[in-house]
Amino acid sequence: MERAAPGAIVTLKDVAAASGVSISTASRALDERSASRSAAAAHVRKVAEELGYRRNSFASSLRRGETRTLGVLVPRLSDTVMALMFEELERAASSRGYFAMVATSGDDPGDERRAAETLLDRNVDGLILATARLDDELPRLLRERNVVHALVLRTDGVSPSALGDDEVGGYLAVRHLIDLGHRDIAVVTGPSFTSTGTARLAGARKALGEAGITPRDGWLIAAGYGIEDGFSAGESLLGPDSRPSAVFAANDNIAMGIMAAAHRRNVRIGEDLALVGYNDTPLASRLPTPLTSVHVHLDQIARTAIDLIIDPGQEPRVRKSMPTLIPRESSGPPKARD
């Protein structure tokens, strides 16, 4: 079967005729929402490909009152986790016949609302928010306007949310250090205005409490999620007088900042200081001392978020993916001290 001549438009009628089926049957076979596996549908798709047929998904979606487009709002794409999250959301959306577009908002609530309106002005079928503040009013405003939306990597406890179980992750990280024999454990968590920061700290406190460990004053530090925040926390914790034997850092950026502070003070990670991060970003395993980290299954979270958007009435509205601890060289037993 020959492809149409250059410039010729192959219509659905042409595909149906060449396939020996009705136009409605050809349409159903080529509808990305149905993805029928029948032999007849496979034959129609093969004929369409050979003819060079290109389905106008945008036009058909408009006829259904849809654009098959989702808006994704992130604080910034320079953040590794946010960039990875968007890639997974884009992949998950594509597998369901949707296109994902991203907008960045920074940390200002006003900028976030303006970015959301920009996406809504493009008639997206739903919004996915990866912005982090617990006091963020945007989810409430979207609920009041009946805008289909879902939160990823965090939750306000009300809007549909897909995230990792951060409390379990914090628990796994600190329990790992305790099982290695550490009792002098510090925790550098994320900002208190984030659900991730508060949940990971709650998990860490639970593990410490079970072991009968009371952290020293100054060993529970709320910081930002940047490398510079980790460096500042490391400078505070690794002073000459007393320091912990182990640190749980609530994300890998914080852990890398602590590594830099440790290097400056000639403290050897994995020998003088055990260190556990969070998120298991690609760089974690490639550092000079590979970083033990809590792996967050972003692919599962992305698929769940897309499901919540496509079927917004389903329960439960808050869905958590179980994290996994990945042990590496940065965590080790406490070094004997003179």
TrEMBL record:
Q: Give the region (Disordered) as residue ranges.
A: 317-338
Identify the species of origin.
Answer: Arthrobacter nitrophenolicus
UniProt keyword Zinc-finger, yes or no? no
Residue span(s) of domain HTH lacI-type: 10-64
Which GO terms label this protein's molecular function in UniProt? Answer: DNA-binding transcription factor activity; transcription cis-regulatory region binding
SMART domains (alphabetical): HTH_LACI
**Which PANTHER family does the UniProt record give?**
HTH-TYPE TRANSCRIPTIONAL REPRESSOR PURR-RELATED, LACI-RELATED TRANSCRIPTIONAL REPRESSOR
Name this protein carries in UniProt: LacI family transcriptional regulator
Q: Keywords of this protein's UniProt record, alphabetized?
A: DNA-binding, Repressor, Transcription, Transcription regulation
Database matches in InterPro entries: HTH_LacI, LacI/GalR-like_sensor, Lambda_DNA-bd_dom_sf, Peripla_BP_I
User: From what superkingdom does this record's organism come?
Assistant: Bacteria
